[in-house]
Amino acid sequence: MIRLEFLLLSAFALALGACATAPMPYKAPVQATPPSGRVAVSQAVNVFDASGSQENTFADGKAALESIVGVMPNGSYQAGEVHFGGMQREETGIAPFDRATLASAAKDAAFLQGSTPLYDVITDEVGDAIGGGSGRAAVVIVSDGLATDYAGRADDAGRTLAAARAVAGSRSGETCFHTVQSGSDPVGAELLREIAAVSSCGSYRTSASLGSAAALQEFSRQVYLGGAAPAPAPAPKRAAGPEGDADGDGVVDSADACPGTLKRARVDSRGCWTLSGLRFAVNGAGIEVGFTSTLREDIEVLRANPDVRIRIDGHTDSDGSAEYNQGLSERRAASVRDYFVNEGGLAASRFQVKGFGESQPIAPNDTPANKRINRRVELTIID
């Protein structure tokens, strides 16, 4: 009987070993010289998503993290790192900037698996590191952006955004969330864009957009130097191709569904100028109070390009009749035009309004998160 139990236990152990997760592949980071200039941040935290949803993009995310650490500027500021997956956390703690410590932690980052609510990490680990602080803080989040609870179920993005706003609200200085998406899931992109839009100094990009030394140095200038250092002369634009990005929006030409977007315009994972962070009244066209901060950034882009004419495109999900959705999309696009004209002082003659209703979804209308993505307003350059 004892021998039988031993054999059964041995077989069970072998079965567990056979099911163990294979080692994650390693992708070398991009090497770049940190830019010089006056550091504009007092605190910096790098947050790396090592949870189970990252299994297919872990190597890309880790390489992005290592690349970012390598290009952080030298200076007198506090910096730390958090890796999360399931209930596990790997942390350096926040301390005077020490590239060697951060680089070692990034290189040793493990695939932690499990499911973790991002709002929990922002509230606890990020909140503990920078909450209540003063001066500008830079929070860099490398993730696929797929919000879940601890059971792996899709989670409402609202709690994540509320957590980010709470941390920002606890500080006396600016808190800038800079999100870097590993992978290209449109649901993840939407959430990461919304996190970046919590404050006007945030930004969103993909890990693929940080694939060159020049891109990393520009990232470092924006995130850590705050424009204090003069930007280098722009490099000549490369011809369109698998690795080209002619309009500089962070989406390579081969994957860019909307080429030729304006400089500084916030684009989605397709490369299209989508008004992120914008919300309307339920079944209405009125823009909700508190969701206009990113529109002011879009106004600044339009002011910088006074000769460009724009078509404002409204889109809905598939709930309701096609006729109703067509009218709703037109009214919402018109609300954005009115905001640009009345609040931004832009000429009404620069804009056309068009509603597409439910006819052009960019995600299946099968979940609340996907429907939220399809309820959008885009800006299309006419001439």
What are the salient characteristics of this protein?
alpha/beta, Rossmann fold, 10 helices, 15% strand, 383 residues, disordered N terminus, 60s Ribosomal Protein L30, Chain: A, 34% helix
CATH A-level architecture of the largest domain = 3-Layer(aba) Sandwich
The largest sheet is: 7 strands, mixed
Number of helices: 10
CATH H-level name of the largest domain... which superfamily?
von Willebrand factor, type A domain
Q: Which band does the percent of strand residues land in?
A: 15-25%
Terminal residue distance:
83 Å
Taking all residues together, what is the mean pLDDT? 84
Task: Give the CA-based shape.
Answer: globular
The CATH class label of the largest domain is Alpha Beta
Indicate the low-confidence ranges by residue numbers: 1-20, 228-242
According to DSSP, the number of beta strands is 11
Structural class: alpha/beta
* Cα gyration radius (Å): 22 Å
Number of domains: 2
Strand and helix map with partners:
Layout (H helix, E strand, L loop, with lengths): L1 H18 L23 E7 L8 H14 L6 E8 L2 E4 L3 E2 L2 H9 L10 H13 L6 E7 L13 H13 L5 E7 L4 H11 L6 E4 L6 H13 L47 E2 L18 H11 L6 E6 L6 H21 L8 E5 L12 H7 L1 E6 L2
Helix pairs in contact: 2-3, 4-5
